[in-house]
Design brief:
The chain folds into 2 domains: about 120 residues, Alpha-Beta Complex (Aspartate Aminotransferase, domain 1), CATH 3.90.1150; about 220 residues, 3-Layer(aba) Sandwich (Aspartate Aminotransferase, domain 2), CATH 3.40.640.10. The N and C termini lie far apart (about 45 Å). The chain is about 35% helix and about 15% strand. The protein has about 350 residues and is α/β, with parallel strands linked by helices. It is globular and about 60 Å long. The chain binds 4'-deoxy-4'-aminopyridoxal-5'-phosphate.
């Protein structure tokens, strides 16, 4: 830390993203990226012409992409917010909807960025423990009267809440934002975007990083009542009006036109997930029921940290979290069938040693 950093950040701990090592080529199953490339349409859109237009700023309103997403999800373009990855929407939501008097609540085991934003903005927050089976008890989020943030499917468990349960949380917290982070919804979850027509306090956040194979482009979107979207726009225009670069906007439009391709990939990933989960269970591991593009597995003979290290030594990267309750687990992103066969073989070998 330099002597220039403001004192309010001296005890502040930043979020640690999954490692992106450069030392050798790994089978990379640690950051929930898609193993499949973006659609051909995306490649075609990033043309020489598009690159040669980089001397111009992008459209700060992102209107063309908003219209495509609105059509895809059956909402109005005014109900769509575009951001530099869904992380940016989370960032803006904590900034816009919370303060010292208006706190936030989220599960104790969920996306590790939520408490980081809360601490960054000095927002009082509570982390509600998951139940013994790692599920979320939706009743505990009803009547909270502060911002509720829930990833559905949750990360790193992959477990889901039903639409009915989400609706109860939304109706019981009127006047406070309920943010449902649907980063992984396309792998078997049920989106609550439809509920944004009925409720003005529901913000649904999605990303192009997972099912749409564009983690490297940084594109996320939020869908909510138009007034709530206008609040987020206010924050965006107060920080970075051109938050999405020209190439990413173009790629996003092409990706939004390639829905069939991405749905097909999601189907393949779901099949691979189920097959991998069965194989790991046969090896004696506990595997939580996942509706995401990763599985959370562990409680075998080895603790999660050792499993992570042994796999890394064999050229396979997975994610391990040091938190007490999940220390025995590793989170494994779903890759291609071949990558997952290599993973299962390595786990078998490690357990046999
Ligand atoms: N929400 C959840 C639950 C995530 O796991 C991630 C990925 N790390 C994100 C949001 C952020 O994704 P991105 O910024 O790439 O859209």
């Amino acid at each position: 830390m330099s002597r220039f950093l403001s004192g309010r950040f001296s005890a502040f701990e930043a979020y640690t993203p999954g490692e992106q090592p450069r030392d050798k080529k790994y089978i990379k199953l640690n950051t929930n990226e898609s193993p499949y490339p973006p659609s051909e349409k995306v490649l075609e859109r990033i043309s020489k012409e598009e690159v040669m237009a980089l001397n111009l700023y992008p459209d700060p309103t992102g209107r063309a992409l908003k219209e495509k997403l609105a059509a895809l999800y059956g909402v109005e373009p005014e109900q769509v917010f575009l951001a530099n990855g869904s992380d940016e929407i989370l960032n803006f939501a904590f900034l816009a909807f919370c303060d010292a008097q208006n706190g936030a609540v989220f599960p104790d085991i969920s996306y590790g960025f939520y408490p980081v934003y809360a601490k960054l903005y000095r927002i009082p927050f509570e982390e509600i423990p998951l139940k013994e089976d790692f599920s979320i008890d939706f009743r505990e989020y009803c009547g909270q009267n502060r911002m509720v943030v829930i990833a559905n499917p949750n990360a790193p468990t992959g477990m889901t809440l039903s639409l009915g349960q989400i609706e109860e949380i939304v109706t019981s917290n009127p006047g406070h934002v309920v943010l449902i982070d649907e980063a992984y919804v396309d792998f078997g979850g049920e989106s609550c975007i439809g509920l944004t027509k009925k409720y003005d306090n529901l913000l649904v956040v999605q990303t192009f990083s997972k099912s749409r194979s564009m983690a490297g482009a940084r594109l996320g979107f939020g869908i909510a009542n138009a007034e709530l979207i206008a609040d987020l726009e206010k924050i965006k225009y107060s920080t970075n009006p051109y938050n999405i670069n020209r190439l990413t906007l173009a790629a996003g439009e092409a990706a939004a036109e390639s829905d069939a391709y991405y749905k097909e990939n999601a189907k393949k990933i779901i099949e691979t997930r189920e097959k991998t989960a069965r194989a790991l269970k046969e090896l004696g591991l506990t595997v939580l029921p996942s509706k995401a593009n990763f599985i959370f597995a562990g409680k075998g003979r080895l603790d999660g940290g050792s499993m992570y290290r042994e796999l890394k030594a064999r050229g396979i990267l997975v994610r391990h979290f040091e938190k007490e309750r999940i220390r025995d687990f590793v989170r494994i992103s779903i890759g291609t069938p071949e990558q997952m066969e290599a993973l299962v073989s390595s786990v078998r070998e490690i357990l046999a040693e």
